[in-house]
Design a protein that fits this description.
Blueprint (H helix, E strand, L loop, with lengths): L2 H30 L2 H13 L5 H12 L4 H8 L3 H12 L15 H11 L13 E3 L12 H8 L4 H4 L1 E3 L1 H5 L13 H8 L5 H11 L29 H19 L5 E4 L9 E4 L25 E3 L19 E3 H10 L2 H16 L6 H15 L4 H12 L3
Antiparallel strand pairs: 1-2, 3-4, 5-6
Helix pairs in contact: 2-3, 2-4, 2-16, 3-4, 4-16, 5-6, 10-11, 11-12, 14-15, 14-16, 15-16
The chain binds heme C.
Length: about 400
Amino acid sequence: MSGMKLRKRPSKQIHAALLALPLFLLVCSTAMGGPREQAKRMHDRLAGVPPTSTTLDLMVDEIVNNNDPLAAAMIAVEHDDFYNVTVKNWATPWTNEEQTVFAPLNDYSATVIGMVRDEEPFNQLLSADILYVGSNAPAYSVSDNAHYEAMEDQGLNLKDVLVKTTQSGETGIPSSGAAGVISTRAAARAFFIDGTNRGMFRFTMLNHLCTDLELIKDPTRSSDRVRQDVSHSPGGDSRVYFNNCLGCHAGMEPLAEAYAYYNYQYPAGNEEAGSLDYTPGIVQPKYLINSNNFKDGYITVDDSWINYWREGPNSVLGWDTSLPGSGNGAASMGQELANSHAFAECQVTKAFEAVCLREPGDSADRAQIDTMTTSFKSGYNMKRVFAEAAVYCAGD
Ligand code: HEC
C-alpha cells in the first residue's frame, strides 16, 4: 500500500466532512427537533395553539439553559386553552353514554379540569367530596346543567373562573355520599338513570381503568353476590350462565353494590330536569327488580362491596394491597378502583393519546407509559403527566 495515497485520501475526506458538518447538524437538529421546534411542538400539543414569542422564549430558555424540557412543558400547561380545550375535550367523553366530545361542560368535566389545574391528587377522582363551580353564571343547580352551559356560552376562561368547593356544601349530599365524579349530577344523569346501576360501574371501568368488562371476564369467581334479576338458565341453558353471564356478573355485582343508595330521579318525560338521589341506608328499588328471574340470587341489603377480582386473573389490574378490598359505599369502592395500577396506567395512556395524537405503539412508547405511570403514582399529579407526554412527543 502506498503511504502517499493513504495520506492524501483521508485529508480529502476530512475536508469534505468539515464542509458537510453544518449541513449534518442542521439535518440532525431538524429531525430531532431543535429547542425552538421542540418548544413549539409541546405548546401546540398541550394548548392547541402556537406559543406567543414571550412564552416561546421562556420555554426555549428552560430547554437550552436549564436542560429542563419538562419545565418548558409546565409553562405550556398554564395556557388557558390547555384547560378550555385540551382537558375539557379529554374529559367530556367520560361524562355521557355516547362517549361524545360534543357535549356541554358539566359538573363532571369541570371537576376534572379543576383537579388537573390545582394538581389535586387524581387518585381521589372517584372518592373525594370535591366539586368545581364557576362564576358569572346562574347558581349551581342540582336539577339542571344551566350553570355550566352558561359559562361555556359566554366563553368564560375556565382556568380563571373554576372554584374548588365540596359536593356536600353545594348540593346537600352528605359528605359520606360524595364519591368524586361518580356522584356528580352529570354522571348520575348519564349512568345512574334507569337500569340497575351496573351501567355506572361498566362506564367507570371503561373510562378510568381503560377496560371493557368483556375483556376481563372471569367465570371462576363466586356467584354468591349475583342479584336475583340475572337468570341462571338464560334460554333454558345453565351452561350459558356459567360460561358467559357469570364472567362479568360474578365480579361486577359485589363491586356495583357500592352504588346501592344512588339513583337519578327525573320528572316523567324530562330526563334533563332530574337530579341525583342519594338514600343512605335505603337500597334503591332498582336493585331488587325482577326477583323472580333467579329466586336464590343475592338480595342487596346495604351498600357493602367486596372485590372478588383481587384474586384470580383480574389480579393483574394491580390492586393496592394496602387497601382492604372491601367496604361500604361508592367512595371507598372508588378508592379501590383509583388506586389500582390499571387506573394509573389508563390516565397516563389517555393523556399520552391526547398529547401525542396517537396510541402508544412500539416498545419505546410502552416503556414511556411505564415510566410515566410510575411517576404519576408518586403524587398523582395529572398536569405533570400531560407535560411529560408532551416532552416525549416533542420530537415526533
Ligand atoms: C361483558 C359483561 C357481561 C356479560 C357477559 C353479561 N352481562 Fe349482564 N350486564 C352487564 C352490564 C355492564 C350490565 C349493565 C348494563 C347497563 O345498564 O348499561 C348488565 C345488566 C344485566 C341485567 C340487568 C338488566 C339490564 O338489561 O340492565 C341483567 C338481568 C343481566 N345483565 C343478565 C345477564 C345474563 C343473563 C347474562 C348471560 C346471558 C349476562 N347478563 C351477561 C354485563 C354483562
